[in-house]
Amino acid sequence: MQERKDERSLGELFADLARDMGVLVRQEVRLATTEVTGKATRAGKQLGLLVAGGAIAYAGFLALLATIIIGLGQLGLPWWLAALIVGVVVTGVGAVLIQQARTALMRTDLMPQQTVDTLKEDVEWAKTQTQ
What we know:
Blueprint: H1 10-74, H2 79-107, H3 113-129
């Protein structure tokens, strides 16, 4: 088996390495930008739908609450007590929903994982190039 002899000087080898590293860094930045932009776009669309749906559902929910308060008042409860009971129940349900949403948001991974993985590979590649 013959060894391939590289005729380039040490300066040329370092210049090639610097050029390759520059290209690699630019590619990694482009990948990270693409990955984060894609995730942010998807999250933004879903957030818009969530806000629109929430506003519509909120209007209907208020009408239902008013109906329940009126119904309890018609059954003989004082109006203030009917409103208090409905308010306490609704606040409790709201607190549970807020906690669930908060937990789900904390689990959302916005880290550009593909970029992190390729950066680790790039570090290994750079180590082998300088040996």
